[in-house]
Write a structure and sequence with these properties.
Elements: H1 6-12, H2 17-20, H3 43-59, H4 67-90, E1 93-100, E2 103-110, H5 112-131, H6 153-162
Antiparallel strand pairs: 1-2
Amino acid sequence: MKRKSLQEHKIQGTYRPERHGLNVRTSLTGALTSITAPKFLSKVARQEWNRVCPLLAEQGILADIDQSLLASYCQMYAHWRSSEDDIAKNGLVITVESQTRTGRTSKPVQNPAVRNSIQFHRSMVQTAVKFGINPLDRPRIEVPSDDIEETDPFQAFLDSANE
């Protein structure tokens, strides 16, 4: 079972600051300032980077430490697209010809790009979940807000006892 986001706890009335406030990341150290794609990305991966990166940075989700994970997502996207292009060109089933003792035979087999496409898509979706790219996972991404105060419950108790 997935953990609820702070917003879900607040909407359902189950939010408790002493319990849920401690799990909130209060700052993203190394906020992403330069949104340039790594040089090792392929052309298609770079296009996906240029499409997704500004959107994630705008939402405050992306930090410098996330660059390699985002690059991995973009590269998986490029591989998936390549597999889909191969399927569009050659079809789901290809004919394999082989030489046997009795002569040449040909038999239909599944295009290997189909299996690759499924694997790349699965990897891509797993990585997309971490960034909240999937609409179902978007509410679960907790973006740190500046209005959260870090108060020590014990200090608050001592202050209330002194009054």
